[in-house]
Amino acid sequence: MSHRSVNRFNAREVARAVKAARLAGEQPDRVEIDPATGTISVILARADSVESAAGAKAWDEATAAIERKSKVSKSAPTRR
Protein backbone atom coordinates (compact mmCIF):
# COMPACT_ATOMS: atom_id res chain seq x y z
CA MET A 1 0.00 0.00 0.00
CA SER A 2 1.40 3.39 -0.96
CA HIS A 3 1.67 6.26 1.45
CA ARG A 4 -0.49 9.32 1.04
CA SER A 5 1.28 12.47 0.00
CA VAL A 6 2.03 15.16 2.55
CA ASN A 7 -0.81 17.64 2.99
CA ARG A 8 0.84 21.04 2.54
CA PHE A 9 -2.21 23.11 3.56
CA ASN A 10 -5.39 22.73 5.57
CA ALA A 11 -8.88 24.21 5.44
CA ARG A 12 -8.16 26.50 8.37
CA GLU A 13 -5.40 28.27 6.42
CA VAL A 14 -7.71 28.77 3.43
CA ALA A 15 -10.44 30.18 5.69
CA ARG A 16 -7.94 32.59 7.26
CA ALA A 17 -6.79 33.82 3.85
CA VAL A 18 -10.36 34.47 2.67
CA LYS A 19 -11.29 36.15 5.96
CA ALA A 20 -8.23 38.40 5.76
CA ALA A 21 -9.20 39.49 2.24
CA ARG A 22 -12.75 40.30 3.37
CA LEU A 23 -11.52 42.24 6.41
CA ALA A 24 -9.27 44.24 4.08
CA GLY A 25 -12.40 45.33 2.21
CA GLU A 26 -11.83 43.16 -0.84
CA GLN A 27 -14.25 40.78 -2.54
CA PRO A 28 -12.67 37.31 -2.97
CA ASP A 29 -13.62 35.69 -6.25
CA ARG A 30 -11.91 32.31 -5.90
CA VAL A 31 -9.08 30.50 -4.14
CA GLU A 32 -6.29 28.67 -5.95
CA ILE A 33 -4.06 26.18 -4.16
CA ASP A 34 -0.83 24.77 -5.57
CA PRO A 35 -0.73 21.17 -4.29
CA ALA A 36 3.02 20.85 -4.85
CA THR A 37 4.02 23.81 -2.67
CA GLY A 38 0.86 24.44 -0.64
CA THR A 39 0.72 28.05 -1.83
CA ILE A 40 -2.74 29.55 -1.25
CA SER A 41 -3.72 32.37 -3.62
CA VAL A 42 -6.90 34.38 -3.07
CA ILE A 43 -8.06 35.80 -6.40
CA LEU A 44 -10.01 39.02 -5.93
CA ALA A 45 -13.06 40.07 -7.93
CA ARG A 46 -12.51 42.75 -10.53
CA ALA A 47 -13.37 46.24 -9.35
CA ASP A 48 -15.93 46.86 -12.10
CA SER A 49 -17.86 43.69 -11.25
CA VAL A 50 -18.03 44.67 -7.58
CA GLU A 51 -19.20 48.18 -8.47
CA SER A 52 -21.82 46.87 -10.88
CA ALA A 53 -23.08 44.46 -8.21
CA ALA A 54 -23.34 47.33 -5.73
CA GLY A 55 -25.15 49.42 -8.35
CA ALA A 56 -27.55 46.58 -9.06
CA LYS A 57 -28.29 46.24 -5.35
CA ALA A 58 -29.04 49.96 -5.11
CA TRP A 59 -31.46 49.70 -8.04
CA ASP A 60 -33.15 46.67 -6.49
CA GLU A 61 -33.62 48.54 -3.20
CA ALA A 62 -34.99 51.62 -4.97
CA THR A 63 -37.46 49.56 -7.01
CA ALA A 64 -38.62 47.69 -3.91
CA ALA A 65 -39.21 51.01 -2.13
CA ILE A 66 -41.30 52.29 -5.04
CA GLU A 67 -43.33 49.08 -5.10
CA ARG A 68 -43.95 49.31 -1.35
CA LYS A 69 -45.15 52.91 -1.72
CA SER A 70 -47.51 52.02 -4.56
CA LYS A 71 -49.00 49.14 -2.55
CA VAL A 72 -49.52 51.37 0.47
CA SER A 73 -51.19 54.12 -1.55
CA LYS A 74 -53.54 51.66 -3.28
CA SER A 75 -54.64 49.95 -0.07
CA ALA A 76 -55.10 53.12 2.02
CA PRO A 77 -58.68 54.35 2.24
CA THR A 78 -59.39 57.75 0.72
CA ARG A 79 -60.92 60.51 2.80
CA ARG A 80 -63.64 62.76 1.49
**Taking strands numbered 1, 2, ... along the chain, how are they ordered across the largest sheet?**
1-2
Radius of gyration of CA atoms, rounded to a whole number = 24 Å
Please give the share of residues in helix.
40-55%
Strand content: 15-25%
Label the overall shape.
elongated
Spans of at least 5 consecutive residues with low confidence = none
Tell me the series of helices and strands, N- to C-terminal. Answer: HEEH
Write the layout of secondary structure elements.
Layout: H1 11-23, E1 28-34, E2 39-44, H2 47-75
Antiparallel strand pairs: 1-2
Structural description of this entry:
- This protein has helices at 11-23, 47-75, and strands at 28-34, 39-44.
- The chain is of the alpha+beta class.
- It folds into 2 domains: 1-45, no CATH class; 46-80.
- The protein has a two-stranded antiparallel ribbon.
- The protein is elongated, with a radius of gyration of 24 Å.
